[in-house]
Design a protein that fits this description.
The chain is of the alpha/beta class and 324 residues long. 44% of the residues lie in helices and 19% in strands. The chain folds into 2 domains: 34-127 and 250-319, D-Maltodextrin-Binding Protein, domain 2 (3-Layer(aba) Sandwich); 128-224, 3-Layer(aba) Sandwich (D-Maltodextrin-Binding Protein, domain 2).
């Protein structure tokens, strides 16, 4: 090739490079503190998980992740706040079963749609429920309860009207063909006090809140609502083991953000969160509170949550439960 031809080729290549769009570089993130919004007050499970996650992410990304509590309306106020935030990765949310799964199912005017209005990033942990009976009820297992509750209603405490525990209770009625009479409580401690005093016959509350009474012989553990046995209370069977595979419900918590977050940020957060949750240190912290974990990528999380939204939405519609 002559020198003039070579020069022409070089000129063409230079021109093409000049007009070709530059490859989009991933956003520099985080360059300032990131806030993690919790829709509940300090001290609850969502808050505790948020602080564990914030500490771990601060180390991983060498930037501050700060927990900000915005309680109210069963977590919906915090969710609505994040929904309206800029999707730049600097405002995240601890998503939860109440505000994202059962809340929209029982309240069509909640103001947001879980799968439409949020970016779902990474699973954190799940809190299963345990069904326990007062010893004075005279049942030793779930089969005994079924025989009893098919004859007459049996009172059963739950975490509050419209909560996942309330819906699980109604699911038990529907699937097992029994009559549990829902009694809402503001907290598990109040429910267990009434159970010990025989003012209510059953409690359906987070496993960690009920299990200590079962271990002490003050309550009779009948079943847990997770698909696998609880990591702490392994002697208590699942409903699946008892012949009710459709009967399950876990109050999952996950990291979310406003819709349309940059995919690169979402992928990085998902990767780090999965590493964090799998670490021995964090697994040990979760085990102390009887929490389960799930390792899932972003598409898998979206599918799982979409399925959960459908399950609880259908159940609320089937039983006619509506709370505003």
């Amino acid at each position: 090739m002559g020198s003039s031809s070579l020069l022409r080729v070089v000129a063409i290549v230079v021109a093409l490079c000049a007009i070709a769009p530059a490859a989009a570089s991933p956003p520099e993130w985080p360059t300032k503190p990131v806030r993690i919004v919790v829709g509940f007050g300090p001290g609850g499970t969502a808050d505790v998980l948020a602080r564990i996650v914030a500490n771990e992410l601060s180390v991983a990304f060498k930037q501050q992740f700060i927990v900000e509590n915005k309680p109210g309306n069963s977590g919906a106020i915090g969710s609505a706040f994040v929904m309206r935030a800029e999707p730049d990765g600097y405002t995240l949310l601890i998503g939860g079963a109440g505000p994202q799964l059962t809340g929209p199912a029982v309240n069509p005017n909640i103001g947001y749609a879980t799968m439409r209005d949020f970016t779902h990033i990474a699973m954190i942990a799940g809190d299963s429920f345990m069904l326990a009976a007062s010893p004075q009820l005279g049942v030793k297992n779930f089969a005994d309860l079924v025989a009893l509750a098919r004859k007459a209603p049996v009172s059963c405490g739950n975490p509050g009207a419209g909560s996942m525990g309330h819906l699980v209770e109604l699911m038990i009625n529907q699937v097992a063909g029994i009559k549990l009479q829902p009694v809402p409580y503001r907290g598990a401690a109040e429910n267990m006090t009434d159970l010990l005093g025989n003012h209510v016959s059953l409690a359906l509350q987070p496993a960690i809140s009920v299990g200590e009474y079962v271990e002490a012989g003050k309550a009779v553990g009948l079943a847990v609502t997770s698909r696998e046995r609880n990591p702490v209370y392994r002697d208590i069977p699942t409903f699946t083991e008892l012949g009710y595979p459709a009967l399950h419900g876990v109050a999952w918590f996950w990291l979310a953000g406003p819709k349309s977050m940059p995919p690169e940020i979402v992928t990085r957060l998902n990767r780090e969160m999965r590493r964090i949750v799998a670490s021995p240190r964090v697994k040990a912290q979760f085990a102390k509170t009887a929490l389960s974990t799930m390792d899932v990528d972003v598409p898998g999380l979206d599918k799982f949550l979409a399925d959960e939204v459908a399950v609880w939405g259908k159940l609320a519609k089937d039983v006619g439960l509506r709370i505003e």
